[in-house]
Design a protein that fits this description.
The complex is a heterodimer of chains A (about 120) and B (about 110).
Chain A (H helix, E strand, L loop, with lengths): L4 E3 L2 E4 L5 E6 L6 E8 L3 E9 L2 E5 L6 E5 L5 E5 L8 E8 L2 E2 L2 E2 L8 E2 L3 E5 L1
Parallel strand pairs in A: 2-13
Antiparallel strand pairs in A: 1-3, 3-8, 4-5, 4-9, 5-6, 7-8, 9-12, 9-13, 10-11
Chain B lengths: L3 E4 L2 E5 L4 E7 L4 E9 L5 E8 L4 E4 L2 E6 L4 E6 L8 E9 L6 E3 L3 E6 L1
Parallel strand pairs in B: 2-11
Antiparallel strand pairs in B: 1-3, 3-8, 4-5, 4-9, 6-7, 7-8, 9-10, 9-11
Classes of the chains: A mainly beta (about 120), B mainly beta (about 110).
C-alpha cells in the first residue's frame, strides 16, 4: 500500500516568486492536511481539505492557499515568497472526520509524507 | 488555546536502557493523542494513536499511556537501540478540529552503542 507522496522533495526559490507543492494521499483517504515545520515555530497547521472542501484553516496569511481535486490529491500554493517561508512542508492524509468523529470504520490516525523542503533565497 | 509541552527536549542514553518520554497538554478536552517519530530531514512516522477513552496502547517495544484528566501522556521505550535515535513528537487532536493536530516541540533522543 503506497504511502503519502509529496512532490517536489526539494526546491529553491527567490523572494517574490510563488511555489506550488503537491500531495497524493493514501488510496481511499479523503482528507489532506498541510503543516509547516520550522526550527523556531515547530509544526504548525496550515489547512485541511476533505472531499474538495477546505474544512479548517490555521493562522497563516492569505499568501498560503490550497485546493483538493476529485481524486483527493491536494496542492498548496505560496505566493510572493518571503525568506521566512523557508521550511519543511508536510502533508498528512486520513480517512477524514465527520463532525467530531472519524469517518466510520477509521481511527482518525494521520499519516504523513516525507515533506517538501523549500528554501527561499 | 491548546498547548503541548514535551520534556525533556533532548535525551542521551546508552543502548539497552528503558526510557520514558513525557508529553503534557493544557486542555483535557482532546479526542485523541498521537505519537510520531521523525528522523533528520524526513517526514513523520506514526507510532501510536491513543483515543481519549483509552488508557494505553502498545506496539512492540513501545507503550504509550494517556491520563486525560491530568493532561499527560508518556511514551515508554523498552530496551532502547541505536536505531531508535530520532525526534519523538506528540500531538493532540481536539474534538472539533478535524485533522488539525497541535504538536509539542519534540524530544530528541540519542541512543549510544
Amino acid at each position: 500500500k503506497a504511502g503519502v507522496t509529496q512532490t517536489p522533495r526539494y526546491l529553491i526559490k527567490t523572494r517574490g516568486q510563488q511555489v506550488t507543492l503537491s500531495c497524493s494521499p493514501i488510496s481511499g483517504h479523503r482528507s489532506v492536511s498541510w503543516y509547516q515545520q520550522t526550527p523556531g515555530q515547530g509544526l504548525q497547521f496550515l489547512f485541511e481539505y476533505f472531499s474538495e472542501t477546505q474544512r479548517n484553516k490555521g493562522n497563516f496569511p492569505g499568501r498560503f492557499s490550497g485546493r483538493q481535486f476529485s481524486n483527493s490529491r491536494s496542492e498548496m500554493n505560496v505566493s510572493t515568497l518571503e525568506l521566512g517561508d523557508s521550511a519543511l512542508y508536510l502533508c498528512a492524509s486520513s480517512f477524514g472526520f465527520t463532525g467530531h468523529s472519524p469517518v466510520a470504520g477509521s481511527t482518525g490516525e494521520l499519516f504523513f509524507g516525507e515533506g517538501s523542503r523549500l528554501t527561499v533565497l | 488555546k491548546q498547548e503541548v509541552t514535551q520534556i525533556p527536549a533532548a535525551l542521551s542514553v546508552p543502548e539497552g536502557e528503558n526510557l520514558v518520554l513525557n508529553c503534557s497538554f493544557t486542555d483535557s478536552a482532546i479526542y485523541n493523542l498521537q505519537w510520531f517519530r521523525q528522523d533528520p530531514g524526513k517526514g513523520l512516522t506514526s507510532l501510536l494513536l491513543i483515543q481519549s477513552s483509552q488508557r494505553e496502547q502498545t506496539s512492540g517495544r513501545l507503550n504509550a499511556s494517556l491520563d486525560k484528566s491530568s493532561g499527560r501522556s508518556t511514551l515508554y521505550i523498552a530496551a532502547s537501540q541505536p536505531g531508535d535515535s530520532a525526534t519523538y513528537l506528540c500531538a493532540v487532536r481536539e474534538g472539533t478540529s478535524g485533522s488539525r493536530l497541535t504538536f509539542g516541540e519534540g524530544t530528541q533522543l540519542t541512543v549510544n552503542p
